[in-house]
């Protein structure tokens, strides 16, 4: 299976990597980027991984941790779509309530 990344998730990943590059250097940011890419590939091979959070996003959307971040994705017959990449310490209820 394949994966796609929404513009929203791509922007969130860029912001994460920029922050890490500024704080810890480009080499560290590249390692983090590679870890996300590995996670996306792994999720596309086994799209049922991760937990659902029915109260936030229903049954079709899954959540997978990468470092302190949560990859929010959905799967269909064509592959997976990475919807969001958010820090796990964020108030997720408020973040996802505002999108519904």
What this model shows, in words?
This protein is of the alpha+beta class and 100 residues long. The chain has a single domain, classed as RelE-like (YaeB-like fold), CATH 3.30.2310. It contains 4 helices and 5 strands. Strands 1-5-4-3-2 form a 5-stranded mixed beta sheet. Strand 4 and strand 5 (79-87) form a beta hairpin. The relative contact order is 0.20. The mean pLDDT is 89.
Provide a short characterization of the protein structure.
The protein is of the alpha+beta class. 48% of the residues lie in helices and 33% in strands.
Tag the structure with descriptive keywords.
100 residues; alpha+beta; 4 helices; five-stranded mixed sheet; YaeB-like fold
Class based on secondary structure composition and strand pairing: alpha+beta
Shape: globular
Number of domains: 1
Task: Name the poorly predicted regions.
Answer: none
* Order of helix and strand elements from N to C terminus: EHHEHEEEH
- Averaging pLDDT over every residue, what do you get? 89
Number of helices: 4
Largest sheet: 5 strands, mixed
Q: What is the assigned CATH homologous superfamily?
A: RelE-like
As a percent range, the share of helical residues equals: 40-55%
SSE arrangement:
Elements: E1 2-5, H1 7-24, H2 26-45, E2 51-53, H3 54-57, E3 58-66, E4 69-76, E5 79-87, H4 92-97
Parallel strand pairs: 1-5
Antiparallel strand pairs: 2-3, 3-4, 4-5
Helix pairs in contact: 1-2
């Amino acid at each position: 299976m394949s994966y796609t990344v929404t513009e929203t998730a791509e922007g969130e990943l860029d912001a994460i990597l920029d922050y890490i590059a500024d704080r810890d250097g480009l080499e560290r940011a590249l390692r983090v980027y590679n870890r996300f890419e590995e996670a996306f590939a792994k999720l596309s091979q086994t799209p049922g991984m991760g937990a659902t959070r029915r109260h936030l996003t229903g049954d079709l959307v899954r959540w997978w941790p990468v470092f302190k971040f949560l990859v929010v994705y959905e799967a269909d017959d064509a592959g997976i779509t990475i919807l969001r990449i958010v820090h796990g310490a964020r108030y997720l209820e408020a973040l996802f309530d505002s999108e519904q």
